[in-house]
Amino acid sequence: FYMITEGLVRPFEDISAGLQEAMGFDVAILVAMIVYAFVFYSLEFVLVGYLFVSLLIQTKYSDMSKMFIGVALAYSAFIALFALGSDVGVLNRTFFAVFSSIFGLYAWYVQRDARFIYYHLAATVLALFLWGDGVLGLLAKKPYLLGLAYLGVSIAYYAVIRFGKQEQKTLQAFLASALFTGVLSLAFTFGQPEYFFLTTAVFSAILFDYSVYSKEYNGIYASNVLLYLSLWSILRYLEVKALWYPLALTGFSYLL
To answer: What is the rounded end-to-end Cα distance, in angstroms, of the chain?
Structure first.
């Protein structure tokens, strides 16, 4: 597939200067985008077949099923990463990351191996970033919207923990995913006090609820720290002078 792609694209690279002058745009880039996208999507559908075969043979040929899944995930990750540096267009890059995210979730569902959740997490984070920054241009204009998207993903991961019945390793993987996307939401909303307040308040509630649910109360300390950050966000939004911060934080400590 790679050799075919290079063979189709290279001739246009050699004559791109003349075509660009005649037609007003770089034909080589357009051809490369179309060819790469076609080849990569073709490969993705082949990998879908691999995953389907892995499901069919899972009962009788467990090891071979794992091999098909491993090959599909490896190639899907390669396509997603290779696409980042190729001329396929940012929308196609996003779709390739989405493919990897879905494949990882499917692999976890079939094999019940918590490691696939981390694969799914990495692909989901990449897909959201490509969509938010590359397609919508949020990183430069409204990064807090990207942060809210990560917060939504964090809530979804935590919902799986609270309302699903999974083994311990799977719960830990989903918890790590919820925490990681929650931290990303804090990072992207930091510049906007009102949205940073929302993310810290929700993230604090998640940590507090999990601490009570799991009876591991150390998480309450982190929850309280986020509450202080929530108060700080309110003070920033109201444009309260820094001189009053110690008084407000002391009073809030008394309430806690």
So the answer is: 62
Burial class (CB in 10 A: 0-12, 13-18, 19+), 156: middle
Cβ distance 72 to 54 under 8 Å? yes
**CA–CA dist 213, 97 (Å, integer):** 33
Look-up of token digits 């917060």:
151
Alpha-carbon torsion (235, 239, 245, 250), positive or negative: negative
pLDDT tens sequence across 23-55 = 444 555 566 667 777 778 888 888 888 888 888
Bin 24: left if φ > 0, else alpha if -120 < ψ < 50, else beta. Answer: left
The pLDDT tens digits of the residues spanning 177-218 come to: 999 999 999 999 998 999 999 999 999 999 999 888 888 888
In the DSSP assignment, the letter for residue 244 is G
